[in-house]
From TrEMBL:
Methyltransferase listed as a keyword: yes
Binding site for S-adenosyl-L-methionine: 107, 132, 159, 182
GO MF annotation: an example: tRNA (guanine(46)-N7)-methyltransferase activity
Name under which the protein is recorded: tRNA (guanine-N(7)-)-methyltransferase
Alphabetized InterPro entries for the sequence: SAM-dependent_MTases_sf, tRNA_(Gua-N-7)_MeTrfase_Trmb, tRNA_methyltr_TrmB_bact
Entries under HAMAP family matching the protein: tRNA_methyltr_TrmB
Its job: Catalyzes the formation of N(7)-methylguanine at position 46 (m7G46) in tRNA.
Recorded GO CC terms: tRNA methyltransferase complex
Gene3D superfamilies tied to this protein: Vaccinia Virus protein VP39 (3.40.50.150)
Catalytic reactions on record: guanosine(46) in tRNA + S-adenosyl-L-methionine = N(7)-methylguanosine(46) in tRNA + S-adenosyl-L-homocysteine
Keywords on record: Methyltransferase, S-adenosyl-L-methionine, Transferase, tRNA processing
Family per similarity comment: Belongs to the class I-like SAM-binding methyltransferase superfamily. TrmB family.
Positions with biased composition (Low complexity): 22-32
């Protein structure tokens, strides 16, 4: 879903070559798709909001292309200027202004946005900054928010690590949610997983005291990694007495994706920690 493996905030780590290099034959249609997207949504989400002024690193998300429906496209055209933002890494966000003073939870990777809209409706006193790179999902969430009259959602387009590292101040977030990120199941791809020590350290720094760091996955080995990495972070403490996985909190809806995993016999684990 959203995010990448981060280096430190002072940018001292050496750049990592981009693993998504393409041949000329592959690059041509990609460039055409990017141009078409910009023509369709001239005031909407940028194709590459951070551009080349940030280093290239191994990413934990894969490009997710899909056809934008008429309703999603209309929502992007009309609502992006007021309810969307591009993660360009050039300025610090004023979360109080964006959300009218509400405490703000960052959700990384929201898919088509149904669960995000449900959580926003159930908790109107909390702002949700929802970050993803999937254009149809961005449009769908904006349309859902408008239809349900939800004013506590903003949609962020781009790399969630740049958002955390460059655009959110330390201690600014009331919570962080990472639900069903890409498990990258092959061993050689484990380095692409979002929940790594570097990411957790960065995320913990952006959480205020008492804020919840909540992960969920239906991939058992990734759940074990999540639990191990969060447990090792000294700024975080497990909400479960004695350690281990947490029961699914009532505020996290069961999604279509989760039901599909359960139907395949997968066990879903929630990992729920609190900032000290």
């Amino acid at each position: 879903m959203g995010g990448i493996v981060s280096d430190s905030r002072n940018h001292t780590s050496p750049p990592v070559p981009d693993p998504h290099g393409a041949t000329r034959a592959e690059a041509a249609p990609r460039a055409a798709n990017r141009s078409e997207r910009r023509l369709l949504f001239p005031e909407g989400p940028a194709v590459d909001p951070a551009g080349s002024h940030h280093e290239r690193r191994i990413r934990s998300f894969r490009p997710r292309r899909g056809r934008v429906t008429a309703g999603q496209g209309e929502a992007l055209r009309r609502l992006w200027p007021t309810r969307g933002l591009d993660i360009d890494g050039r300025s610090t966000l004023d979360l109080d202004t964006l959300f009218g003073g509400l405490p703000v939870v960052l959700e990384i990777g929201f898919g088509m946005g149904e669960a995000t809209a449900r959580m926003a409706a159930d908790d109107p006193g909390t702002g949700i900054l929802a970050a993803d790179v999937h254009t149809p999902g961005q449009g769908n969430l904006l349309a859902l928010a408008e239809r349900e009259g939800l004013t506590n959602i903003r949609v962020a387009n781009g790399d969630a690590i740049i958002l955390l590292r460059e655009m959110i101040e330390p201690g600014a977030l009331a919570g962080l949610r990472v639900f069903f990120p890409d498990p990258w199941p092959k061993k050689r791809h484990h380095k692409r997983r979002l929940i790594q020590p570097e990411f957790v350290t960065l995320a913990a720094d952006r959480l205020r005291s008492g804020a919840l760091f909540h992960c969920a996955t239906d991939w058992e080995p990734y759940a074990e990694q999540m639990l191990e990495v969060l447990t090792a972070c000294p700024e975080l403490e497990n909400t479960v007495s004695g350690g281990g996985y947490a029961p699914r909190p009532a505020f996290r809806p069961v999604t279509k994706f989760e039901n599909a995993g359960l139907g395949k016999g997968h066990r879903v684990h929630d990992v729920l920690f609190r900032r000290r």
